[in-house]
Amino acid sequence: MKKSSHINLTKVLGTTVVVLLVVALFTAAMGDNIFASAYNWVLSPFQQTASELTAEVDDSLGKSREELMEENEQLRSEINELISQVVDYDDIKKENEVLRKYYGIKEDNPGYDISVATVIRRDPNDDFYGFTIDKGSRDDVSLNDPVITDNGLVGWISEVNVTTSRVTTLLSPEAKVGAIDKKTQDSGIATGNIAHSDDGLLVLSVISADNTIKEGDIILTTGVGGVYPANLVIGRVTDMKFDRYDTTPYAVIKPYEDLKSVDDVVVITSFEGQGVVQEASDTDSDTSTDTDEKTDTDKTQATDTDK
Amino acid sequence: MGNRRGYRYALYVLEIFVLYLIEGTPHLLPEFYLAKPLLVVPVAVCIAAFESPQCAIGFGIFCGIVIDIGTGGAVGLTSVILVLVCCLESYLNSKYLKENIYMVLIYSAVASAAVVSLKFFVFYIMRRYPDALNGYVTHYLPRIVYTWAVTPFVYLLTVLVSKTFIKDKKKIKVKSRKRSVQSQRSSASRRRAKMQDVL
Question: In chain A, whose CA is at the least distance from the CA of B35?
Answer without folding.
Answer: A124
